[in-house]
Amino acid sequence: MPIRTNPNFKTIGRNDPCPCGSGKKYKHCHQAIHDKMLRYRRQGVEVPSVSLLKTQPQIEKIKESAVINIACLDEVAKKIEVGMSTEEINQIVHNTTTNMGGIPAPLNYEGFPKSVCTSINDEVCHGIPSPDIILKDGDIINVDCSTILDGYFSDSSRMFCIGNVSEENRKLVEVTKEAVQKGLEAVKPWGFLGDIGQAVNDYAKAHGYSVVEDIGGHGVGLEFHEDPFVSFVTKAGTGMLLVPGLMFTIEPMINMGGPEYTVDKDNGWVVRTKDHSMSAQWEIQLVVTNDGVEVISY
Ligand code: MF3
Ligand code: CO
């Protein structure tokens, strides 16, 4: 029986059970994908480790987590309004998550004190909910929700326009959503991670906006933050190979002014634009499939 080497250097026989757990023989399951990954790697392409590729049973579990994740944002969408505090948003997310059997991933994550991030106006990300922060007419706010169910992670965020938002700010919110859509359309099996960054960046720049560097998307599913880091300032045709089973987020932070940001010195979390211009972000979670892409959470 010929022995093949998969990209983790483990030897698997063609007739052995596939390591993905499908119960099928390796030769009828992941062998072709692994062989293709090996060929790319020999050409010097950055290829994900097999452990980053989600199996079908894992994807099913992560989707169950995403049901809660989506329900939280739907609940926020129903209730969010002028005069509400961001602590109330925190409670909506916390209660929806726990009532459905989940755990809010942000709570106590590296010391983060709340169950959701709420980032208003010039806040780029990691805003901390507080009873003292009250939503005002004209605010734009990102609500970033991350969920654990039975150890499986989902992560997505949406923008909300509070009351009468200026045309200028509303446009930032819309263009940022469209930029994520452009990124999603750039996801192709056996394409490159950089294709996504280029698509997002081109779209944002075409509207005169800037894209935050250093903070971006990430692999997700079995942990909160896995490889790869997903940058939105990359070039098409570069970066990690998009192998079916790779799961990650697209979550660009797009600023009306410059891309520079500061991190709050007092709490070490809240990221703001340096020039205090408005910032928007939407986040989706996806998995690369054999023939395209599937959105897991949004
Ligand atoms: N939800 C953020 C993301 O999209 C991460 C927030 S970390 C936290 O990756 F601790 F602030 F919650
Ligand atoms: Co994320």
Describe the structure.
The chain is of the alpha+beta class and 298 residues long. 28% of the residues lie in helices and 24% in strands. The strands form six sheets. Strands 3, 4, 6 and 7 form a four-stranded antiparallel beta sheet that branches. Strands 5-14-13 form a three-stranded antiparallel beta sheet, with no helix packed on it. The chain binds 2-amino-4-trifluoromethylsulfanyl-butyric acid and cobalt (II) ion (CO). 2-amino-4-trifluoromethylsulfanyl-butyric acid binds at residues 106, 109-110, 112, 117, 126, 144, 146, 155, 218, 251, 283.
Short note summarizing the structure:
It contains five helices and 17 strands. With 298 residues, the protein is of the alpha+beta class. Helix 2 crosses helix 3 and helix 4 runs antiparallel to helix 5 (193-206).
Topology at a glance:
Elements: E1 3-5, E2 11-13, H1 31-42, H2 56-79, H3 86-99, E3 103-104, E4 117-120, E5 123-125, E6 140-149, E7 152-161, H4 167-185, H5 193-206, E8 210-211, E9 217-219, E10 226-230, E11 247-250, E12 253-255, E13 261-263, E14 271-273, E15 279-281, E16 284-288, E17 293-297
Antiparallel strand pairs: 1-2, 3-6, 4-6, 5-14, 6-7, 8-12, 9-10, 11-16, 12-15, 13-14, 16-17
Helix pairs in contact: 2-3, 4-5
